[in-house]
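Folds vary. Our protein:
___
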Amino acid sequence: MANSQLIVTLYPNAFGMGYVICETPKELINYGVARIRPLTKDKYIKRLYSFIKQYRPTLIILRDYDDTDNKISKRIIATIDAFKKEATELDIPVYSYSRSQIKETFKQFGDSSKYGISKTIVSWYPELKHRMPDPRKNTKAEHYQMGVFDAFALMLTHHYLE
């Protein structure tokens, strides 16, 4: 990978979107959960443009939704499709990875559940420990900070598979 590569990883979810901005997995620039309100495609696109303007990425990594391990809303699908369209128009390459690919990548490091993946990521990035959610019960909503771990998992999957 070229040294001048700057990657924006975006993982839209029910709160907004998790993101990781990096040059390599060891060279992090920024990460977090971007709160988006209201949750409209236009608001997501506005945030995408702010990332593009601020960081000038050479590559965008997105969640893919074309697999059977898929629980994703129509709103998120429309958002991902809009991100792909905008990136294509701006001539920024896009890579997409499904939940199945993420799980398969992390299976070799132990648990491939969302919580297990989060634990693995915290072991590699101790600075994320304070964001680590408790194990989720089926009756509880997903933790707000899970978006950060989803974005990290997506970014790491890209670097592992490329």
The beta strands are 7-12, 16-24, 27-35, 59-63, 94-97. The two ends are 9 Å apart (CA to CA). The chain is about 40% helix and 20% strand.
